[in-house]
Amino acid sequence: MNDTSLSRRNIDFVLHDWLQIDKKADRETVDAILDLSERLAADQFLTHYKAADIEEPYLRDGRVHIHPAIGVALRQYAELGLFSASFPERHGGMELPYSVCAASFAIFAAANISTAAYPMLTVANARLIATFGQESQIETFAKPQIAGRWFGTMCLSEPQAGSSLDEVRTRAVFDQSDQLGERYRLSGNKMWISGGDQDVSENIVHLVLAKIPLADDSLPKGTAGLSLFIVPKILPDESRNDIRVAGLNHKMGYRGTANCLLNFGEEAGAVGWLIGEPGQGLRQMFMMMNEARISVGIGAAAIAGRSYQLATTYARERLQGRETGTGEREQVPIIRHADIKHMLLQQKSYVEGALALTLYCARLVDEASSDADSDALLGLLTPVAKTWSSEYGLSANDIAIQIHGGYGYTRDFDVEQLWRDNRLNPIHEGTTGIQAKDLLGRKILKDGEGIPILGRKIAATVGEAAAHSHFKEQAASLAEAWSSIEHAITTLSGFHQSKVFDNATPFLRLFGHVVVAWLWLEQALVTLRLDHLGDSRNDFVDGKRRACHFFYEFELPQALALLPAICAGSDVASGAAAEIF
Amino acid sequence: MNDTSLSRRNIDFVLHDWLQIDKKADRETVDAILDLSERLAADQFLTHYKAADIEEPYLRDGRVHIHPAIGVALRQYAELGLFSASFPERHGGMELPYSVCAASFAIFAAANISTAAYPMLTVANARLIATFGQESQIETFAKPQIAGRWFGTMCLSEPQAGSSLDEVRTRAVFDQSDQLGERYRLSGNKMWISGGDQDVSENIVHLVLAKIPLADDSLPKGTAGLSLFIVPKILPDESRNDIRVAGLNHKMGYRGTANCLLNFGEEAGAVGWLIGEPGQGLRQMFMMMNEARISVGIGAAAIAGRSYQLATTYARERLQGRETGTGEREQVPIIRHADIKHMLLQQKSYVEGALALTLYCARLVDEASSDADSDALLGLLTPVAKTWSSEYGLSANDIAIQIHGGYGYTRDFDVEQLWRDNRLNPIHEGTTGIQAKDLLGRKILKDGEGIPILGRKIAATVGEAAAHSHFKEQAASLAEAWSSIEHAITTLSGFHQSKVFDNATPFLRLFGHVVVAWLWLEQALVTLRLDHLGDSRNDFVDGKRRACHFFYEFELPQALALLPAICAGSDVASGAAAEIF
């Protein structure tokens, strides 16, 4: 009952029929990677999904122990070369497009997000070192991660510095230079470190944001003072670094991923090597964070996706009630009831909308290095991909429980755990509120290049759709929605600085829905090209088109209803005194 | 940190300033009951909130054991006469208005819903027997429950009969008559029985829906064949009845309430006494179910309410980020950020909207027996009170987690458990989909009396609000929203029978938001009468008005955006073949 995962047909549709990934990698290789991912996910990830939730990580004698099945699964993941898939050959990689790796990651995330989180962080960590580190750092710290022998973390938050990284107090004092670069001694407390300790990989490479004290020993103010350090758990000379696990966070979900409070430098100071130049820490970390944000979006879509598959299966099997107005006496599968179909279609519009959005962004990653437009569009869409998938993916998980009725509320079914797991995604790697400020402040009002590019792409889709009777109405709605967005941006850019962010989060919600409406129309248009394939694809095609129509009938209008309050600069919330709550 | 509960000021506002409950009960008595409820809730219910979640009920040697603190709390609840509060004096009660008891229940539900569920079910059970039972049944089975010595359950669902009660297969065969009425022998399996067994009360009174076989031994078809039986765990002669606990459901939340699969009559047949006439079971049960539905709504509002209090407290204490545009260097409490204020105001609009809606319904219960309009309005609003509070209460819980950030995702804070607890409410006592059919089918298109009554009430509110510059706009919006509802009803009533329910659930969402918008305007108008009370109430008044404005600016428009699809009779979901999913 719990063994369904993501729809492969849908992944193939997105990668090949829509994103035409075969221009980047041959179909055979892509199929082989995804087949292998499906098998490993089913055989080694899904199998301990429930067990790793029940038997949480625990701390004993200063060491964190995680469920042993996680180690078994990840060793096979490493053996199949999946850690290395996206890396260039010179770093021991397979040089596959990021978009293909992202689809593979989605399959693992659907099966077991908290096990998949370890390689996700490891790969992002290694990529950062491979990008900004010196050759000896890549050799020593990135390659063992690319091989999957060591795992990686990102250490940003501190108890007093969550969303505000300028408050970081971890200090890094210069020690001496060696063949690995400039060596520092770090001291400070890092909070919420996923994979901060575990007993599965040979070593753990922490990437730590810290500040180098000024001449008067004070720490520089602001984020410009942040530098980035490679701080391994076990040093190259095999000795333990000065890092202590001060505690484990006991989460409501996502439990297989050990989440730690780490104390660096309680004794002589934890040894760490500076990456690149001092003061570049946040900029460098943003590379890892942007990758992580897209991964969070993909993970959220995947967790939602499995819940959709489970709900569909349950709805086909569960007999309850009769068909309205038929006078039929036998009970029917609940999938025949309008209310259930409405919920399934809503789920489908969220799940496949989120998957399209996040894999589209993954495709942009592949293009960003050689195409400035793709790079700008990626910057614009990253906060949307992270947030929309997290928020609406979670809604899809909620619907899956509702379709299961009382059964969905029991721990005998996976849908409740999937819901708990997905609840983390609107929080970590930047909350929804932080993403909203990034989108509106940095990506739209400051950078600004992404909007006209997106506008042109949307106009192209509108143009194509307007020519088809099936999608004429949607084309008109999308054109109108986009001009509402442009109008809103013009209006918001005229607001006083102190008012601009008053309704940034509703704006993100609105913007996200317009973007996903566009991607639904894109997907619907692709189905026109599938028509010649005959009857066997009719259900799939009808499903895509209905989900598109559903999104335009029920979803987009609700989001657009937020426009008047946003454009009027409503201060009903922002103007409230703290005392009224 | 976790000891805040519901806002008493808000409860007082709703009961006294708005609903003018003092016309039914003197203020002193009401205050005394609520004071006592707050104390007992804090001292005995909240104290085992976490413990009862961790140490779940367990089954050993055929008996269910629940957390002992639940028994301690409920004995005190009984000693203070709280089981009996709403019953007439002749049944050993205090004859308090139901609305006052509902407010008291809200306080306990906020502190610990799964402990509060036992008396909630017990009181509803006893009221059913007191209403439909014969004198000896009341004496024997209702009074010990009114005294809080015995607890009660409702046994409706079976594995194959969840939302479809006509599928009930439990059979009741006539045995003989005795001084307790017509005695039957029952056999069958009942699923999802809250409080189905426990080791805390002296006895358990099950109210069991079953069918009396026809002459050919077959069971009558449909719900008309359902009869209701009193089936005690321990019989009047002190022997155990033939009821076996076949299993416990392991839920994701609401864990203190043992939820059982009960097998009746595995041996000689469970002894049960018929209530009233055969075939009246569902009608009788609906009395209990309607009370339970309002209680579910109140509970959902209360669980959400505590999460709002916790979020507010956290937001006042947590320092993070700076005030936008002030250049201030010190971190500020997050309650000063627009995004957090937006979330808190949204929560407030849900929590206090749901509490207003459900306590309004409780007030209608007090009036329904003597006033036909109130009775009709209560019927109309019951599915709304149950559903809207459950759905948007859950959203409020979700927001509380978001405000807590990563901390809210850990089990060190209560907000995650509150969210898990509240997830049951859109499911039990009739899912959202079932409530939507009840609202649109039975309450609007079939009965129909409720709508014009509600229309007149809304028109009165609109008239009053239109005279005040503060609320003119809201008055116009509400008038327009209500005429949209009337238009939608006219349109829907013209649809073919097989199409009417195609979008019943979106209609319920729309209808619920319009009703709550009305109640927000009602509450805002009441604040005009508080103005003379001076400065001390200014924050409270401003809070109510802002929440009202927020609801009209951000919430109502989104719900109204569903109108076109509903009125067009969209078949995008209902017309979908099962194979497209």
Largest pleated sheet of chain A? 8 strands, mixed
As residue ranges, the low-confidence spans of chain A are none
User: What share of the residues of chain A lie within helices?
Assistant: 40-55%
Q: Biggest chain pair contact, residues each?
A: A-B, 99 and 100 residues
Number of strands of chain A: 10
The mean pLDDT of chain A is 95
Report how far apart the termini of chain A are.
Answer: 45 Å
Which class do the helix and strand fractions of chain A yield? alpha+beta
Described by its quaternary structure, the protein is homodimer
Shape of chain A: globular
Tally of contiguous helical segments of chain A: 16
Percent strand of chain A equals 5-15%
H/E series of chain A: HHHEEHHHEEEEEEEEHHHHHHHHHH
Rg over CA atoms of chain A: 24 Å
